[in-house]
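Supplementary Methods S3. Complex input for the (2S)-2-hydroxybutanedioic acid-bound model.
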Amino acid sequence: MFDKLEQALPDPILGLAAAFAEDPNPQKINLSVGVYKDADGNTPIPNAVKTAESRALADEDTKSYLPISGDPAYGAAVQSLLFGDGHPIVSGGRAATVQTPGGTGALRVAGDFIHTAHPGATLWLSDPTWANHPKVFAAAHLATETYSYYDNESNKLDFKAFTDALSKIPAGDVVLLHGCCHNPTGMDPSASQWEEVADIVRNRSLIPLLDFAYQGLGDGFAEDGRGLQALAAVIDEMFVASSFSKNFGLYRERIGALTLVTRSKDDAGRALSHLLITIRTNYSNPPAHGSSIVTTVLNDPDLRAEWEDEVKSMRDRINGVRKLLVDTLERKGAKRDFSYIARQKGMFSYTGLTPEQVDALREEYSIYIVKTGGRINVAGVTGENVDYLCESIVNVL
Ligand code: LMR
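Predicted complex, serialized as structure tokens:
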């Protein structure tokens, strides 16, 4: 059996890390996978996480299984982070949250659930979107289509094309929206645009699946939740896939959540019973370490304040690097106006470099970025590598 297999293609994002590790060039730069790095190029563990982790370890008295849906205290903490304490969706019992292995796990559970509970529905993805989205949903046997989102000429969200496309999606289909810090473009709707989007989604009877992986890294926790709040105000049914990889720095702990918003408490209970089967047949039940950290931080006012400050520092550094990139590219003689980099939100910059330019950066300069749109992990840029990076970009332009 195995000798007949062809070599599979490496993952377009994580596969680059393996190629980077093997590159002997001392000047190599890895700007591929979305992992926060500080000014020294390290990926720190937030202090609030460290404190919560030691507390959780000291208090832990069993390694028995968690429930299939995860720790109920975690589910409650996630709902309160998403919607805010006392939100009618939460107090009315209309939400059901399951703990998942990362945001990707949440998306896959959602995909499997949609496939069985809502057969025939197509899932609509933005063009462009995270390179793994189509693959996760194909693995769940869902049909996918794309909707217009971005104008490559002006390097902006093409709001008219976006809303026109949403208005043509058949009723009952599921539309994946990026909650904030759109991956890969970094271009999000404004608060008023989110309200328009929510109205279209409601009027067309679409079911939103919000991929919410970067809360706090765009403009702030409340600001980054504007899309979710706009949808929650008018939508009866929705999915929210949360990830705490980036804002808690818990990448390798694989901690995320899938939250369903339903019309009634009864609906939530029945929907949850199907989610439990999906989870049990995929990975049985979730790991506990990440959820105990997130729950401890979210429920302790001091740790929570410390964590929010730490996320603010990440956000401030990323925004500072955006400006540094724009200035340095100009100083190094780039003819193109790169000022849009400073307007993008979150961890990524969609530079607009062509696949040939991306290849040249890797082959000639050992600079690793994602091929689609020349996506750069802005957080990987430091005072030390910015000159070499910008000179190399100018050379391949
Ligand atoms: C990314 O887009 O780089 C991150 O979401 C990490 C990943 O798993 O691809």
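Residues 9-45+316-396 form a domain with the Aspartate Aminotransferase, domain 1 fold (CATH 3.90.1150.10). The two ends are 46 Å apart (CA to CA).
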